Amino acid sequence: MKRIKDIDLENKKVVIRVDYNVPLDSNLNIVDDNRIKESLETINYCLDKNCKIILLSHLGKIKKEEDKIKKSLKPVSIRLSELLNKKVLFIPETRGNLVNEAVNNMKSGDIILLENTRFEDLDEKKESGNDSELAKYWASLGDVFINDAFGTSHRSHASNVGVSQNIKESCLGFLIEKELDNLKLITDNPKRPFVVILGGAKIVDKIGTIKNLINKADHILIGGAMAYTFLKAKGLDTGASLIDEESLEFAREMLDKTDKIILPIDHVVSDSLENSSFSIKDTISDSDIGLDIGPETIKLFKTYLENSKTIFWNGPMGYYENEVYQNGTKELCDIISKLDVISVVGGGDTASCVINMGYKDLFTHVSTGGGASLELLEGKDLPGINI
Question: Catalytic residue positions?
């Protein structure tokens, strides 16, 4: 597992797998450019070494031909050009004559961004299936491969693992280095008390993480929709709240196994996700949907957070898509930002919330990879790291 400074990059043609899986609005404007900004250190380092740079990235999932219209990386190339104050040549193809000609005509300091690697998934999932022919093609474009896409490092795709297996030299970029160094604060003997905050909707996606963290954490604070699965498993009324039915038995097992799990004691409820009129209740009636943690729960969670030395957080506390139900998430951001603790946010929606609410610089680390950080916490090897 070489790191970027272990490789001689001078005047080399470098293929860099970046993570430009950024949110776009209906007009294809970039909503959050954090992942683009996080790639700049590695790109600028390669520019200082007079490299020719070929960038690979995915954007969303491509399941049908129409998806291509809203999942092109062209808007990303424009924003990257602005951030670098340098032209980034966008190639609206993933391979072929247009790509070959552009790469062959590159001069030192040139940057090319190829089209969304997952456009290749329309052809028998060649990208996500790590197709050997596709991987060899992308590897043939450069002399060195740098993986700097932490957000996909838990996946074995043609654009990360495949390229690394078919090129002379491979290494990790500065973003992945930073991710690994900061996540070690959680995975390797964290300072105690160690408090975990989990939110979001589904438990099933986090079962492995919960099983692992139950043994490591001192307390696990659960909010978001997943809290209602635990509350129902406990025998409490959850009304019309979202329940992860397939995880109910698991939730019961965890509640029987440990007293480390701390659940909400009051709730912000309404009769629909879109309704901005709400009530705060200790108990939930049949028509109520739990959409955020209430003020007493915030106070309860605060007591655990204030006594902690290390905090890991993955998952919003409420239905954050509606601004009315962002308060619980924002209050926890505010509480944690004022503490002298190690605080790590595990990517995904939580990272977007923390960044958009203006708290990014007040946390120890905000990860760019939700799934990757959770699998790392689960104790799994990440194939994109072991290149």
Answer: 35, 202, 348, 371
